[in-house]
Amino acid sequence: MKHAIPASNVLTLPGWQNSGPDHWQSRWEARYGYQRVDQHDWKTPRRGDWIARLEDVVLGTEGPVVLVAHSLGCILIAAWAQVSRSTARVQGALLVAPGDAERDELRDVLPSWSPIVRQPLPFPSVLVGSRNDPYCRYERAQGLAESWGSRFVDLGNAGHINAESGLGDWPAGVKMLLSVASTSAFGESI
After folding, report:
1. What is the CATH number of the domain that holds 170?
2. Cβ–Cβ < 8 Å for 117, 79
3. Tens digits of per-residue pLDDT, 73-115?
4. Ordered DSSP codes for 4-54
5. Could you give the CA distance from residue 94 to residue 101 in angstroms, rounded to a whole number?
6. Judging by beta carbons within 10 Å of its beta carbon (0-12, 13-18, 19+), is residue 62 exposed, middle or buried?
7. Strands 65-70 and 90-96: what pairing?
8. pLDDT above 70 coverage of the chain, percent
9. In contact, 65 and 9? CB cutoff 8 Å
10. CA 71 → CA 1, 3, 115, 141, distances in Å?
11. 8-state DSSP, 93
């Protein structure tokens, strides 16, 4: 699949506990050369620390960027966009299976992530949700998409849209990424 997006400008943002080698984010990094935003602490994520790290990486990347988030990474983008002065550098975002940090069983584990920021993102975005995601009810994912001004894509019964979902390289996800990123900043539309 031909990309008009420079690989170094596509930043992947895994969720809590990182994405393993069989996760579609890891597979995309290996296949296309996308860059992971490595956090200092994957086990005990602090919202402020993760926001600061994302800001550092965006500022350290030459040219516009495209964000590809999974789970808590989606919540990170919303929180970062609320406080960052660098959001104009983002051409678009693919938000996949947002993790609901406001769920009762997660509030004590992820205390700094609640409440979830619910304001429109200042860049185009697509949110992909699953009808049987164990970490975010389908209706909650739709509500987040609406709050963030994201186009919502229903992936059906795909669990948490991770390695266990059996997506492999997830070519349909790559197409969604390319559609959200296909602007004049990256050359001709794909």
Report:
1. 3.40.50.1820
2. yes
3. 999 999 999 999 999 999 999 999 999 999 998 988 999 999 9
4. -S-GGGEEEE--TT---TTSHHHHHHHHH--EE---S-SSS--HHHHHHHH
5. 19
6. exposed
7. parallel
8. 93
9. yes
10. 25, 25, 15, 11
11. E
Tell me, rounded to whole angstroms, the distance of Cα 135 from its chain centroid.
15
pLDDT tens for 112-136 read 999 999 999 999 999 999 999 999 9
* Mean of per-residue pLDDT scores for the chain: 93
CA–CA distance, 25 with 22 (Å, rounded to integer) = 8
For residue 46 the two structure tokens come to 């602090």
Tokens coding 106: 């997660």
Please give the structure tokens belonging to residue 144.
């987040």
The single-letter code of the amino acid at 71 is S
* Residue 150 in domain: yes
Q: Is 176 within the bounds of a domain?
A: yes
Expressed as residue numbers, the domain containing 43 is: 7-186
Burial zone of 88 (CB within 10 Å; 0-12 exposed, 13-18 middle, 19+ buried): exposed
Strands 125-129 and 90-96: parallel
Residue 141 lies in a domain: yes
Tell whether 76 is covered by a domain. Answer: yes
Q: Report the domain count for the chain.
A: 1
